[in-house]
Amino acid sequence: MKQSKIEWTEATWNPSVGCDKVSSGCKYCYAEVMAKRLKAMKAIGYENGFDFTILPDRIDAPLKVKKPTKFFVNSMSDLFHEDMPVSFLDKIFDTIERTPHHTYQILTKREENLEKYFQDKAVPDNVWLGVTVEVANKKNRIDVLRRIGAKIRFISIEPLLEDLGELDLTDIHWVIVGGESGAKARPMKQEWAIEVKKQCEKQKVSFFFKQWGTWGEDGMKRSKKNNGRLLLGREWNGEPSHIE
Q1: How far is CA 71 from the centre of its chain?
Q2: Average pLDDT per consecutive 10 residues, the chain (244 residues; last block may be shorter)
Q3: CB within 8 A of 161, min separation 6: which ones?
Q4: What is residue 5's predicted lDDT score, i.e. its pLDDT?
Q5: Taking the CB of residue 160, how many other CB atoms lie within 10 A of it?
Q6: Cis status, amide bond into 159, omega within 30 of 0
Q7: Buried b / exposed e across 209-237, counting CB within 10 Å, b at 16+?
Q8: Which of 212, 138, 144, 209 is nearest to 172 (CA)?
Q9: Per-residue pLDDT, 244
Q10: Which residues are CB-contacts of 232 (< 8 A; sequence separation ≥ 6)?
Q11: Contact 152/243 with Cβ under 8 angstroms?
Q12: Among 39, 76, 40, 45, which Cα is nearest to 58's?
């Protein structure tokens, strides 16, 4: 558990690490690169590199944090990975329910596993559930998400890899958009991001623009820090405002 540089959260909590690629957004996964680096550094928890691994010694970490904190859960994995034991997932959600002063942001590309887990369970009030939609043929993840009774539902459109076309944001409260970073990053076009922003405004959904990534607004390749976070000349830092 550590403070995070991710713009839309405050800290990360990784009770499991490692993952497997399931869609085009995974191709140049930042977590995979980082996990391999941490393994080389002999960091605790990364002995298996990017192979999926549960870490029971981290399960109680949020209980030790008294200050209300917004946690991104599993920034280095997918909480609903196929190899995640249901019994361990239950323990994670037990910790979440025992810490109602925290907020937990959970993001997955495995919408079917997400729905299956919550088919006979209630989503804790302090959980924000999200799915990643990086290309148009993954918009079905939104339909699955809206069927789950979370108080906050959000979509991470990062990396935005193409024009997504029309988005049905019914019962969605927050959309995050960002470009890809890393040496092999694929460019994001300005008009794709603007079109998502327009649809958020029309459907009254909070919009957050995270970053340009490796390719800037001008189509030039440089560090993501230098490309910055401005879209149409300003930052967009919307957060969920509607709670059912």
Answers
A1: 11
A2: 84 97 94 94 95 97 97 97 98 98 98 97 98 97 97 97 98 98 95 98 97 95 95 96 57
A3: 24, 25, 134, 135, 180, 186, 188
A4: 83
A5: 27
A6: yes
A7: bbbbbbbbbeeeeeebeebebebeeeebe
A8: 144
A9: 46
A10: 194
A11: yes
A12: 45
**Residue-wise DSSP of the chain:** -EE---TT-SEEE-SEEB----SGGGTT-HHHHHHHHHHHTT-TT-TTTTS-EE-GGGTTGGGG--S--EEEETTTB-TT-TT--HHHHHHHHHHHHT-TTSEEEEEES-HHHHHHHGGGSPPPTTEEEEEE--SGGGTHHHHHHHTS--SEEEEEE-S--S-------TT--EEEEE---STTPPP--HHHHHHHHHHHHHTT-EEEEEE-TTB-TTS-B--HHHH-S-BTTB--B-------
Distance CA(244)–CA(172), nearest Å, equals 11
CA distances for 77 relative to 41, 170, 241, angstroms: 19, 28, 27
Token representation of residue 115: 């729905």
Q: What is the pLDDT of residue 3?
A: 81
Distance CA 159, CA 135 (A): 9
Residue 157 has phi, psi (to 5 degrees) of -100, 70
The CA-to-CA distance between both ends of the chain, in Å, stands at 30
Q: Amino acid identity, residue 167?
A: L
Strand partners, 17: 53
Question: Would you say 181 and 25 are in contact if contact means Cβ atoms under 8 Å apart?
Answer: no
